[in-house]
């Protein structure tokens, strides 16, 4: 109804606040998706910072309850929920989450304590979102060293979280390099487009500037339509 302009988005936010004690992964996944759409729309307004505060307020209680480490007897949905919640808090700039993500990322890179698979995407995305050129270089190094394609894809999907304009360009250039399989280039560009307002503009310009190469690469296939959609 809010999307159709029938009721105010404020009403939606009030309903979302009522789910603060919700334990179910599927519900949080839906809340996260809808808040993501709102956040994207609000990135073009003066309310961008306010929606980040709202995300932190809604997600921090469940984040504190779940913690960073698996508890005895929890199911796979709890692991999925932990990744979802920590990723959301990290992206929104929740300080405790960001500090812990940086600490665990450092241990992971140094080989002291390897991150579990379900925590890698949220940690990678968090440190990149609030990182600098050395963070990006470290991530590209991890990509080069990864022996499993699954890990390479995981890194490719989060590279777009970086927010400085010159680093966004570096990620876009990397997308067309030989380091990335042609079928995975779209994931990298899509990640940039979904990462930030600056990323969306840069990705759209990049697609237009490299249209001939991209079109020749994918012809009329589904990847070209997916690229335009993102």
Keywords:
single chain; 230 residues; mainly alpha; Zincin-like fold; 13 helices; metalloaminopeptidase activity
In words, what does this structure look like?
This is PSA aminopeptidase. With 230 residues, this protein is mainly alpha-helical. Helix content is 72%, strand content 0%. The chain has 13 helices and no strands. The protein has helices at residues 9-17, 25-42, 48-66, 76-92, 95-109, 117-129, 133-145, 149-158, 165-175, 185-195, 197-209, 211-218, 222-229. α2 (25-42) runs parallel beside α4 (76-92), α9 packs across α11 and α10 packs antiparallel against α11 (197-209). It is globular, with a radius of gyration of 18 Å. The protein starts with 8 loop residues before the first helix and ends with a helix.
Largest sheet: none
CATH class identity of one domain: Mainly Alpha
Distance between the termini: 24 Å
Low-confidence residue ranges: none
The percentage of residues in β strands lies in under 5%
Total helices: the number is: 13
Return the string of H and E elements. HHHHHHHHHHHHH
Instruction: Please give the share of residues in helix.
Output: over 70%
Mean pLDDT: 95
Q: Remind me, CATH topology of one domain? A: Zincin-like fold
Q: What is the overall shape?
A: globular
What radius of gyration results from the CA coordinates? 18 Å
SS class: mainly alpha
- How many β-strand runs? 0
Q: CATH architecture of one domain, please?
A: Alpha Horseshoe
